[in-house]
Amino acid sequence: MSFLKNHDGKFKHWYHFTAFRFLTGCRIGEACGLWWGDVKWDNECIVFRRTYNGRIKKFKPTKNETERLFPMPKNGRLWNLLKELKQGNGNECVFLSSTGRKINDDIAGRYWNNKFYKSKGITYAHSGFVRILLEQGKISKYLPPYNTRHTFVSHQIYDLGRDRDIVNSWCEHGEEVSRKHYRDTGRIAKGINPELPASNQTTLSEIEQLKNENKELKEQIKQLMDKLDKLIK
């Protein structure tokens, strides 16, 4: 996330949208369809009640046509993330493109992955930030945009020890769907020593999290040093 947050160019705009999806595990269309009226500051929660379909340019109910609450503790990471944005009217989208348009999965996908698209007979090319991170060796393999949801589910259950029913409720899916599509159980299992109690072990996901945090700190230090060099010169 530090790559987006500290980027000097076009990718910086996508920091809040991407971070929101990692913090909530919501579907892409649900983030696109979130209105400021769905952000309940007084109740410290977010209401997911619609999705935005960019192909037909219409708002629709969520996949299972339900409304669900997602906790947003005051002064927590999610709360502070949304406070950084300019708040609009109740029926205005929280996340917009850099030109003020509604975001859909296609527009968001252009900045995630390398994409070519045509507009008024002209072909445009977008370099996605995930592809750039892959080329720079900062991630080991390409993962599609929907993996923000996978990451949220695995992190909540395996890293934080959250009850699976709670996570399923937050994400609006059942246990079978969660187990089959969203929990990276095989990868986690590889980091478990079957000869030790669970309370004495550091899982592979925890190790990777520490490595990622270390990389982010190194990157931030490098950026600060570069700025310092410029000031000295």
Automatic annotation (TrEMBL):
Domain of life according to the entry: Bacteria
InterPro entries, per the entry: DNA_brk_join_enz (IPR011010), Integrase-like_cat_sf (IPR013762), Integrase_catalytic (IPR002104)
GO biological process: DNA integration; DNA recombination
Coiled coil: 200-230
Keywords: Coiled coil, DNA recombination
Domain Tyr recombinase: 17-182
One example GO MF annotation: DNA binding
Keyword S-adenosyl-L-methionine annotated: no
Protein name per Swiss-Prot or TrEMBL: Tyr recombinase domain-containing protein
The species this protein was found in: Mastigocoleus testarum BC008
